Amino acid sequence: MAKTYNIAVIPGDGTGPEVVKEGRKVLDAAAEKFSIKINYIEYDFGGERYLRTGEPLPDSAVDELRKTDSIFLGAIGHPDVPPGILEKGILLKLRFELDQYINLRPVKLYEGVETPIKNKGPGEIDFTVIRENTEDLYTGTGGFTHRGSADEVAVQSSVYTRRGVDRALKYAFEYARNRRSSRPWKGLSEEEKEKGLKGQLTLVGKTNVLTYIYDLWKRAFDEMGEKTYPDIKRDYNHVDACCMWMVKNPQWYDVIVTGNMFGDIITDLGAMIQGGMGIAAGGNINPEGVSMFEPIGGSAPKYTGQGKINPLAAISSVQLMLEELGEEDAAGSVENALRRVVAERLDSLAAGRMGYTTTQVGDMVVREVLK
Ligand code: IPM
Ligand code: MN
Asked: Which domains, ranges and CATH numbers included, belong to the chain?
């Protein structure tokens, strides 16, 4: 009997619904090909609904989402809603309530895609960032005193727990260990290979200034690596240096693990070197629970309804979803289809410059999946 997955869909704001529509088409095609059954449950959370009801995300919805197999999110962000409300009220609330403690962001340059980094190609740009997703500055710990006066003080603290750091590190070490089977990283020297090393995990932090939180990260990283993952080469970069190396020598990276705030920042840089927001996807993962997949580019309000936005980031998040569900073959077919479409068909990955409309690009990927 065909396996059935209940997938919650939150198209959201701006161009979210347009790209989600294409993502669903591709998911349906992969499901058809691999005899999977998808049952969609659609939710209208986003700016419009918030402006109508005053409530970003009812608690009852979180309980419903908890019972699904996965969540597919378009984009959250509305020009008429002040910053922070929808982000905290929907996106961050879901990450926290569903304990999606990993934010998985592959940075992979496909053949035929332009990168702004001179003299680098698909052989050099292929790594994954694992961003801790529930702690750090994102906990919202802090506040104001004397708000609005000349004596105003604002404090916002970065909070890390050993438990939170350890679970993110464990995921990252496991990921680095398993990644080599499908996409071997070429950065190890012969000598290192002889020593039995199989991959590399780089911790990105700021131990020279954030001497509490990244001291905790560094100790936890070394302890876990030494004890449980001696086959993974450990490396450490300060976050500012990491930004430099991502541009200068991206081939040094295999898997990066970092905190929530630094991960947010470096993955926008990562998205740019892999060809832009048109292709960058991410997963908010709870390895023991319900995960949520999204294109990371936001709602792009200026392109709404024009058929100009690139749906490949949403399609790539469908691939990540299938991987997380354990549907490796279906995920592989989506990735291969996407790879062929970018290599052979599109003029550019930028909105409005693809040479095709949003729907046409979705259709091309569907055709490739079904081949
Ligand atoms: C991201 C986004 C979010 C974040 C915002 C929208 C809250 O930038 O997913 O990277 O900061 O995590
Ligand atoms: Mn971000």
From this structure: 1-102+289-371 (3.40.718.10), 115-274 (3.40.718.10)
